[in-house]
């Protein structure tokens, strides 16, 4: 039978710790767990993540938004 990735069958995703990461790395990490970033300021493409909401370890539904603050 074909292999099914467990992440596709679980309804919740755990928010990773993104503090101190570059904006690009934080976006990549969220994409891996199928969560979406909402960045403040919204036009920032470079910088370092200084805050996130919800906190790391929180369980969210797939494709939920994680608010990120960068400078």
How would you describe this structure to a colleague?
The chain is of the alpha+beta class and 71 residues long. Helix content is 20%, strand content 31%. It is built from two helices and five strands. The strands form two sheets. Strands 2-5-3 form a three-stranded mixed beta sheet, covered by helices on one side. The model has no long low-confidence stretch (mean pLDDT 88).
**Averaged pLDDT, please?**
88
Low-confidence stretches: none
Largest pleated sheet: 3 strands, mixed
SSE run:
HEHEEEE
Features:
elongated; three-stranded mixed β-sheet; 20% helix; single chain; 2 helices; two-stranded antiparallel sheet; alpha+beta; 71 residues
Provide a concise account of the structure shown.
It contains two helices and five strands.
Topology:
Elements: H1 6-9, E1 12-14, H2 23-32, E2 36-40, E3 49-53, E4 59-61, E5 65-70
Parallel strand pairs: 2-5
Antiparallel strand pairs: 1-4, 3-5
């Amino acid at each position: 039978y074909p292999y099914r990735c467990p992440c596709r069958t679980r309804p919740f995703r755990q928010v990773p710790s993104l503090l101190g990461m570059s904006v690009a790395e934080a976006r990549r990490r969220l994409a891996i767990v199928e969560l979406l970033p909402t960045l403040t300021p919204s036009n920032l493409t470079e910088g370092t993540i200084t805050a996130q909401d919800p906190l790391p370890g929180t369980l969210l539904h797939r494709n939920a938004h994680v608010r990120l603050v960068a400078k």
